[in-house]
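<instruction>
Derive structure tokens from the sequence
<entry> Chain with its tokenised backbone below:
===
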Amino acid sequence: MIVVTGATGNVGRPLTRALAEAGQQVTAVSRHAADVPDGVRHVVADLAEPAGLEPVLAGAKALFLLLSGDLHAVGADPADVVARAVGAGVGRIVLLSTLGVVTRPFGTTRVAMRELEDVVRDSGVDWAVLRPGGFASNALWWAESVRTQRVVAAPFGDIGVPVIDPVDIAEVAAACLVDDRHTGGVYELTGPEVITPRGQAEAIAAALGSPVRFHELTRAEAKAGMAQSMPAELADDTLDILGSPSPAEVRVRPGVERVLGRPPRSFAEWVTRNVAAFR
């Protein structure tokens, strides 16, 4: 049995589906009740309270560990989750980390994530680490304004990074969870090309078959909007990356092709598959 944490998110949902379709027994873990594919067991649990995971982990052979949100939770101890998994007999852990641990290693969140990577490596079980860059699905922030006004509003309209389709991350994770060849692998994952916010607006317009206007926000305007859903430090950090990406942050990474034997999906492919969100 494979335990998938964050099972209702942009990565966890397609990962759960992919594993179930491959015939794996899956337990999907999330903070709230959710629909899951037929045959999948769903458990409501909070990763900030690792003791509650022990019944979930009993009998599991592998764990997909998505803890990025919980690193900010009061009292959260990601290392305790790893220890409890190992204690329950889990033989493989696949950790969803971030490319930022190598491109900008000194932020609070990335320091914590790098420490968690080390905990997983030193756990004594098989492991793999996935380090994705920016997600294509972040474009869903614009879904409402596109639906109601046909507008994408974002800062730094002509500065781009190679965003990745979360389904590619999920497929890489599925392979790492079941295939011994990926034990000890550290996979840096990006999309196939650098794309700017303006370019993303153009791709959304093409998928819709109707014009979408791009409106460039100032940094202050963007921060004010982001601060409604994330700590101010993280908002500033994100804006630093979007506004002044380093050469390492704009470099296309080979991780998807290394694992799956094919190039990563483009942003245009992601939009085509998710165009209903923008209609």
Notes: The first strand starts at residue 2 and ends at 5.
